[in-house]
């Protein structure tokens, strides 16, 4: 729910007079239209916001959109906007607009098209109370589903069946499945994005489960690594190291902290345990309409934490041929620190 005043200021700062929005999550954030992928938005030079979509969505757009709706298909969409944009500098979303899309706009508009990056994404990083509530509910629902499914995670069960139960649980509770469920057991745990396979979980395995709900468009995200039976001493040591890094990074979350510094903190702890090389991804990310959004908690990030951001902290260690561990919490950055939204307990391994 991006505020119009903030949007106008960001557009001015980007040095453009108007903005053509084609990124689905940005379309949704600006308008409330839930089929963002089938809509485009023009923020005009006077600050007027128009949602363009086609006649399949007439009723839906009228019900959902907070802004004026124009039903049209390209090329009428472009022609409709052309007069208002003559001679202006119009921002286009460089991270999303295709080369073909750029050609179409150039053909129809007598305007200077200026690539902009991350303009609306930056505004979306700070969530409104309503957005926080949607994420909170999505995570609470995911926590409940995890508790229901937990007893079936044992030796002899396929990863796919664990994923299916999680998906069914989310669906039954009224949510969507936020992303392909990761269930990575035994040596498959060495794959950070090891989506559930036909592998049968064995005694002594660690099992990494990373899943999320999507509710009213907003995601949750959480990872737990569980032990089935007694894992090797090596994997128990790795688990302890990842837990230490996770807890230290969570404890350091507060407004004003540089995301790059948080990544360095967690990475440093894993390095002390000889697992620096094994931490094969960034520490975390913002969560909202997209599963991965601003801020980026990685060592090259310029982002700084601010109250109202919803982020993950998810260090991991991945040992090819052996296994892996990841522990992830979902956090709201508050005025004086943080609130952990993912309430599923971490197990003793
Ligand atoms: C396909 S959505 C995966 C959600 C998951 N919680 C997640 O964000 N993961 C899993 C391990 C790595 C991490 C990830 O994909 N991080 C991105 C932001 C990166 O580039 O490091």
UniProtKB/TrEMBL annotation:
The keyword Hydrolase applies. Pfam families: Creatinase_N (PF01321), Peptidase_M24 (PF00557). It comes from the Bacteria. CDD domains: APP-like (cd01092). This is M24 family metallopeptidase. Gene3D superfamilies: Creatinase/methionine aminopeptidase superfamily, Creatinase/prolidase N-terminal domain. InterPro entries: Creatin/AminoP/Spt16_N, Creatinase/aminopeptidase-like, Creatinase_N, Pept_M24, Pept_M24_MAP, Peptidase_M24B, Peptidase_M24B_aminopep-P_CS. Residues 4-126 form the Creatinase N-terminal domain. Keywords: Hydrolase, Metal-binding. Residues 134-335 form the Peptidase M24 domain. SUPFAM superfamilies: Creatinase/aminopeptidase, Creatinase/prolidase N-terminal domain.
């Amino acid at each position: 729910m991006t505020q119009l005043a903030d949007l106008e200021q960001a557009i001015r700062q980007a040095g453009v007079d108007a903005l053509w929005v084609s990124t689905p999550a940005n379309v949704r954030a600006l308008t409330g239209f839930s089929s963002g992928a089938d809509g485009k938005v023009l923020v005009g030079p006077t600050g007027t916001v128009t949602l363009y979509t086609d006649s399949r969505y007439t009723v839906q757009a009228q019900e959902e959109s907070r802004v004026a709706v124009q039903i049209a298909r390209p090329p009428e969409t472009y022609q409709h906007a052309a007069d208002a944009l003559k001679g202006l500098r119009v921002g286009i979303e460089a991270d999303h607009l295709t080369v073909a899309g750029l050609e179409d706009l150039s053909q129809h508009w007598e305007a200077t098209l200026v690539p902009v990056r991350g303009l609306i994404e930056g505004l979306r990083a700070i969530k409104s109370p309503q957005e926080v509530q949607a994420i909170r509910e999505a995570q609470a629902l995911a926590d409940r589903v995890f508790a229901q499914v937990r007893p079936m995670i044992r030796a002899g069960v396929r990863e796919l069946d664990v994923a299916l139960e999680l998906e069914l649980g989310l669906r039954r509770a009224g949510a969507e499945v936020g992303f392909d469920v990761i269930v990575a057991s035994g040596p498959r745990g060495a794959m950070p994005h090891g989506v559930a396979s036909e592998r049968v979980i064995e005694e002594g395995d660690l099992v990494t489960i990373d899943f999320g709900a999507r509710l009213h468009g907003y995601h949750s995200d959480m990872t737990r690594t569980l032990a089935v039976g007694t894992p090797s001493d090596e994997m128990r040591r790795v688990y302890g190291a990842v837990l230490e890094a996770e807890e230290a990074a969570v404890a350091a979350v507060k407004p004003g902290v540089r995301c790059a510094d948080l990544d360095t903190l967690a990475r440093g702890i894993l390095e002390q345990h000889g697992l620096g090389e094994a931490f094969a991804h960034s520490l975390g990310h913002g969560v909202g309409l997209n599963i991965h959004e601003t801020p980026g908690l990685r060592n090259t990030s310029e982002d700084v934490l601010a109250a109202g951001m919803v982020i993950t902290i998810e260090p991991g260690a991945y040992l090819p041929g052996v296994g892996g561990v990841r522990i992830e919490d979902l956090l709201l950055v508050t005025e004086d620190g943080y609130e952990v939204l993912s309430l599923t307990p971490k197990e003793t391994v």
